Amino acid sequence: MSQLRQVMREFAVATRGRGFYEITREVASWLREAGVRDGVVTLHIQHTSASLLIQENADPEVRRDLERFFARLVPDGDPLFRHTLEGPDDMPAHVRTALTAVNLSIPVCGGRMVLGTWQGIYVWEHRREPHRRVVVAHYVGE
């Protein structure tokens, strides 16, 4: 009979400004060190101007295209926004986060995350300036 267990960890991600920061290896390494088997890992980013994304990790042009699309969809300095105290990129960053995700749930089988061949886990920084982002990981399973 298997024993249910939980493991938690925080990952600090130093961003250099707007863009994608892959954390797949860090999460996979933590799961190996924790000796997990089968279950689910949930990731949560503790911010309202950055998000989490599972996206292609082979061709960086995919991520650049996403940036270009969101720049068109939610441009910095849009006069529609009244929340401008923190700069012209702040409210667009909140909208970007609202349109994406702050939580991800990923199955784990045999101690490995069940991701597709070209899938990677990213912190997507929506602000132009560098930030320190915190991702909380919670594993539940065997």
Give the tags:
8 strands
Q: Helix- and strand-based class?
A: alpha+beta
What does the radius of gyration come to?
17 Å
User: What is the residue-mean pLDDT, rounded to a whole number?
Assistant: 97
The main sheet comes to: 5 strands, antiparallel
Question: Which strand order do you get reading across the main beta sheet?
Answer: 1-8-3-5-6
Q: Detail the poorly predicted runs.
A: none
The SSE string, one letter per element, is EEHEEHHEEEE
User: Would you count the extended β strands for me?
Assistant: 8
Report strand %.
Answer: 35-45%
Which range best describes the helical content: under 10%, 10-25%, 25-40%, 40-55%, 55-70% or over 70%? 10-25%
Dominant shape: elongated
Q: Helix count?
A: 3
User: End-to-end distance, in Å?
Assistant: 10 Å
